[in-house]
Amino acid sequence: MRRLARFLVLLLPYAWASCAAAQTSTVDPSDATLSVEVLEQAHTPFPSEMVTLLIRGEYRRHITREALEQPDLEGFNWTQLGPDRWTEERIDGKLVKVMQRRMALYPERAGTLTIGAFTHHLTLTDEGDDWFSHDIRSSPVTVQVAPGPELPDGAWWFPAKRIEISDTWSNPPDQLQPGEGVLRIIRIKAIGATPEMIPPMPELGSPSGMVFAHPEKRLIELSPEGPVSYAFWRWTIQPGNDRSAIVEPLRLSYFDTEARVLRDVTISAQRVAYDAATLPAPPLTRAASAVLPGWPAALAGATALALGLAHALSGWRPSVDAVRRRLPMLDPLARKLRQAARADHAAGTRRAAAALLRRDGAGSDRQRLLAGLDRALFARAAQKPDLPGFARAFLQAAPDTKR
């Protein structure tokens, strides 16, 4: 016991000297240090790709108050990855207070960007136990940023470590009750990206459905590997008819910052339908009754039959052209001529008349009528012709009888 007492008496001056050195207004540079480090990456980052920054302070003095001031970080977007972390570490055999802050920086452009000095404002204690202010600063650091890859026109630049997509429905989309809609929610989870980096909510298309878009929601969580951002896209969908509708697929592109490749994600199409068991049975439809041709067609058929029998009995067999000339209602060219004339279509009327001339021969009466039509259509003092009257006269005029 006496030996222990002697040892403590001998140790007391050294302990007092150590405390006196710690509680002094003179601060040795090694008593408080501040450093900024860009954590090493296997590649040169692209614009908007996350760069992790570690701010570390080591303190061998008692600290009464502190505040870490960061520079403007011009050329970067940034977010802090959680609160400052204070611990004690044994360095060179002595316990040292250690402060660490992690930040995610997102460069806004390619080139060499500078991160300015961080300043740690400290309040320390002197020999008289009075407080005094003391600042320490880090050295500036630079970051090299490479130009981003070429993108298709209109594509959204979306770099992320990885993304996860979920597609959920409030109830089975193909088993809706009559008049009911269904809520669709697509959740985008992006690791290593901030919420504004996620593409805007797209339009959900459906040719035969009614789609009502809801305001999107965006959230952020902080994690050691970077921010985790969420986007929620929501639509209420209802079939636009009495049965079903198809919701078109959605497509999303992002840059995988770990694999260094552009990736495309497709959210498949979906059928939205009412439950067939709840729908009323479709009404029975009666088969359409047959409609017999009118009396003009019947009369023409009977006349053709009578002429055929008469000529057969007399030993002469009529040609098809002869029957057409005698029965204009059976002649397709004659029908075209009458239809074009009724529609007041001059060009169609002339084409049909010229076709009849080529087939039947150019009789003098028909040539005269066609020449009169041409004069009415193409003369300098052109007049609107009577097309229905022309068609009647042309069909009544005799064709070339030598054919």
From TrEMBL:
PROSITE patterns found in the cross-reference section: PROKAR_LIPOPROTEIN
Top-rank lineage group of the source organism: Bacteria
Keyword annotations from UniProtKB, A to Z: Signal
InterPro entries in alphabetical order: BatD
Signal peptide residues on this chain, from the entry's feature table: 1-22
Keyword Signal: yes
Coiled-coil features, chain-numbered ranges: none
Entry protein name: Oxygen tolerance protein BatD
Organism: Meridianimarinicoccus roseus
